[in-house]
Specification:
Protein name (chain B): Alpha-ketoacid dehydrogenase subunit beta
Distance between the termini of chain B: 38 Å
Radius of gyration of chain B: 19 Å
CATH class of chain A: Alpha Beta
Oligomer: heterodimer
CATH architecture of chain A: 3-Layer(aba) Sandwich
Number of helices of chain B: 12
Structural class of chain A: alpha/beta
Mean pLDDT of chain A: 93
Largest sheet of chain B: 7 strands, mixed
Structural class of chain B: alpha/beta
CATH topology of chain A: Rossmann fold
Largest sheet of chain A: 7 strands, mixed
Cofactor (chain B): thiamine diphosphate
Strand order of the largest sheet of chain A: 2-3-1-4-5-9-8
Number of helices of chain A: 10
Number of domains of chain A: 1
Low-confidence stretches of chain A: 343-349
InterPro entries (chain B): THDP-binding, Transketo_C/PFOR_II, Transketolase-like_Pyr-bd, Transketolase_C
Strand order of the largest sheet of chain B: 3-2-4-5-7-6-12
CATH class of the largest domain in chain B: Alpha Beta
Keywords (chain B): Oxidoreductase, Pyruvate, Thiamine pyrophosphate
Strand content of chain A: 5-15%
Shape of chain B: globular
CATH superfamily of the largest domain in chain B: Thiamin diphosphate (ThDP)-binding fold, Pyr/PP domains
Shape of chain A: globular
Low-confidence stretches of chain B: none
Strand content of chain B: 15-25%
Pfam family, one (chain B): Transket_pyr
CATH superfamily of chain A: Thiamin diphosphate (ThDP)-binding fold, Pyr/PP domains
Order of helices and strands of chain B: EHEHEHEHHEHEHEEEEHEEHEHEHH
Distance between the termini of chain A: 75 Å
Radius of gyration of chain A: 22 Å
Helix content of chain A: 25-40%
Largest interface: A-B, 57 and 52 residues
């Protein structure tokens, strides 16, 4: 069982992530109603919220250091927060501001914070190979840093995942594959796309260890992750860690979820990992005032980040042409060369 | 006189439904195409009529199901397989361009691959670099695939009938902004009258969406509508713009383009795909090959060679719009 200080830290990140998603939801819907228009409002583009998945984020990431690498999928905020991403600059990025983590170029599915080695991608399972590469780099450099690839249970049928498992296993790389099993891949329930009941059994074919955490108990995840991250850090190779979580919302904001039964949605709402975490904390002697203080601090942090982000400047349109290359080759940065046959009569510069 | 108008997605679904009724060998598979009806409404309502056996949800395994479509097609079935966003092509490109596109050729013509790969293209709603591309050129560049890009509901239906009946692999690219989605409003143009009966539109026949005598604008997809908007605005200033909608890239109707430039003498190519090594260069080259003497001026309006940025200000900067087209037309005048 983790220390009280650790439990409190896990809880703080969980309520930060949950409140962050609630506030983002409010901001996102502004200007998009009554008729939902994805291209309107202060937050542009798609938004995938992770409410209900916090336990998988904090339970693993609280074993990690800044030099450990995390790759997350298109639903990244809870993992980013647990990994210690710069919350203000992440928020500015989601609002498409110049001082965002990615200068407004990436947005919510493509957040990069090299200070804490966090990255995410909008393509399913495609964070797995880069995590393997980070593990390879650690092994080659003889450091004890580890890499964690997050993916959803819908992604465990993707080729990139299988190839990554094999590569990590055959080279004994320090990688943990964390499968957040929220039961739904957009509209597709797991039983209609795979005959495997749980993602951890995918490990069997690769001589790799697999661990399943059957419920979204952050402490249970923390203890399972101690084993998986410890194995990686000690040079004993990769693990699949599968965690049951619950998708409390649609796949993306605006998803009507007509494919999903009311009972299933209600069941997801009933099983709240945050309430479960509060029970742990009470078992350790914390009372409502203590919990309230943690929540208040978390909410303040989120409100500050959102207020700061909304106050940030929008990008200069001319900056759209920057950052295609780190070392721009001469001659290719002019993307709009002018030529006009009528004017090519021989007048040189 | 046709008294009903359809959105582009309804027109596409109508063609698919009709072909499925006519031919037991036609089936549709993809991610979220059954219960959801397609993220971009590409299969809305088909599950109810045809059931899960013929409207198949598949695992998120593009290599497997696109490759499976190739295999089923080689057995003589007529699969339609949906790649949800064209940006996802990378995870399955081997099956697409080494198998689907090449097997007919490599078999010396003894094998055919009568499948359709449908896929959503296009930006304009801040979905950033992995969900906003318009990769017309990528698929048109690699030989062996026919490439279809409708801009109206009428064209979409006729081209889909043709695509399903075609004995070759067809990549059918629909622009999200044209589908008539509730959450992504379309311009007025793509919703058109559509006949209830089946009809085909042959591949390789561009459509002159607006006749004009001063400048030829060649484009496709969403930018047909932006070019028409620009043409209306320019008409107020006495500039008469001809707008050519290519409708298919492979085969490419060079003849209609060349004849138009021979009439106008001035060419503007508009493409939402990247500028370099793509469609816009191909069109300019085709005209230079066959009508260089007629060509007085040329401009390209295309996505600059940068990944699509997220922030609205940045995407707006790189995404060609009607005013960019208008400026280009004025520049060649």
């Amino acid at each position: 069982m983790p220390s009280v200080e650790r439990l409190r830290a896990l809880y703080a990140d969980m309520v930060t992530a949950r409140y962050y998603e609630e506030r983002l939801q409010e901001e996102y819907l502004e200007g998009k109603q009554p008729a939902f228009d994805i291209s309107a409002g202060p937050i542009p583009g798609e938004l995938h919220l992770a409410a209900g998945q916090e336990a998988a984020a904090v339970g693993v990431c609280h074993h990690l250091r800044d030099d450990d690498v995390v790759t997350a999928p298109h639903r990244p905020h809870h993992v980013a927060i647990a990994k210690g991403i710069d919350l203000k600059r992440m928020t500015a990025e989601i609002f498409g501001r110049d001082t965002g983590l990615c200068s407004g170029k990436g947005g919510h599915m493509h957040l990069f914070d090299p200070d804490v080695n966090f990255a995410c991608s909008g393509i399913i399972a495609e964070g797995c190979p880069p995590a393997v590469g980070a593990g390879l780099a650690a092994k080659k450099r003889n450091t004890d840093s580890v890499a964690v690839a997050y993916l959803g249970e819908g992604a465990i049928d993707q080729g990139g995942f299988f190839e990554s498992l094999n590569f990590a296993a055959v080279h004994d790389l320090p990688v943990v594959f964390v499968v957040e099993d929220n039961d739904w891949a957009i509209s597709m329930p797991q039983e209609r796309v795979t005959d495997v009941e749980s993602a951890d059994t995918r490990a069997d074919g690769f001589e790799m260890d697999g661990i399943r955490v059957d419920h979204d108990d952050a402490v249970a995840v923390y203890e399972a992750a101690a084993e998986a991250v410890g194995r990686a850090r000690d040079g004993n190779g990769p693990t699949i860690l599968s965690v049951q979580v619950h998708r409390r919302m649609g796949h993306f904001m605006g998803d009507p979820q007509s494919y999903r039964s009311d009972e299933d949605q209600e069941a997801a709402l009933d099983r709240d990992s945050i309430e479960r975490m509060e029970a742990h904390l009470r078992d350790h002697g914390l009372d409502d005032d203590d919990l309230g203080a943690v929540r208040a601090e978390a909410h303040q942090r989120v409100d500050d980040a959102i207020a700061w982000a909304k106050d940030q400047p929008k990008p200069d349109p001319d900056d759209a042409y920057e950052h295609v290359f780190t070392n721009p080759p001469s001659g290719v940065t002019d993307t709009e060369p002018d030529f006009d046959l009528a004017e090519t009569g021989g007048e040189g510069e | 006189m046709i008294d009903r108008e359809l959105t582009m997605s309804r027109a596409i679904v109508e063609a698919i439904g009709s072909e499925m009724r006519e031919n037991e060998e036609v089936f549709y598979m993809g991610e979220d195409v059954a219960d959801y009806g397609g993220i971009f409404d590409s299969t809305q309502g088909l599950l109810e009529e045809f059931g899960y056996d013929r409207i198949m949800d598949v695992p998120i395994s593009e290599t497997a199901y696109l490759g499976a479509a190739v295999g089923a097609a080689q057995q003589g079935m007529r699969p339609i397989a949906e790649l949800m966003f064209v940006d996802f092509f990378g995870v399955a490109m081997d099956q697409i361009y080494n198998q689907m596109a090449k097997n007919t050729y490599m078999s010396g013509g003894s094998v055919s691959v009568p499948m359709v790969m449908t896929t959503a293209v296009g930006g304009t709603y801040s979905d950033a670099a992995q969900h906003s591309q318009t990769l017309y050129g990528t698929f048109a560049h690699l030989p062996g695939m026919k490439v279809v890009v409708p801009s109206t509901a009428y064209d979409a239906k006729g081209l889909m009938h043709n695509a399903i009946r075609d004995d070759d692999p067809v990549v059918y690219m629909y622009h999200k902004r044209l589908m008539g989605l509730g959450w992504l409003p379309a311009p007025a143009g793509p919703k058109t009258p559509v006949p209830e009966e089946d009809y085909t539109i042959p591949f390789g026949k561009a459509d002159v969406k607006r006749e004009g005598s001063d400048v030829t604008v060649v484009t496709l997809g969403l930018h047909v509508h932006r070019a028409l908007d620009a043409a209306e605005s320019l008409a107020d200033d006495g500039v008469d713009v001809e707008v050519i909608d290519l409708r298919t890239l492979v085969p490419l109707d060079r003849k209609t383009v060349v004849e138009s430039v021979e009439k106008t003498g001035r060419l503007v190519v508009v493409d939402e795909d990247y500028r370099s090594f793509g469609l816009s260069g191909e069109i300019v080259s085709a005209v230079a090959d066959e009508a260089l003497d007629s060509l007085e001026a040329v401009e390209r309006v295309a996505m600059p060679d940068v990944p699509i940025p997220y922030a609205r200000e940045l995407e707006h900067e790189v995404q060609p719009d009607a005013s960019d087209i208008e400026t280009a037309v004025r520049n060649v005048r």
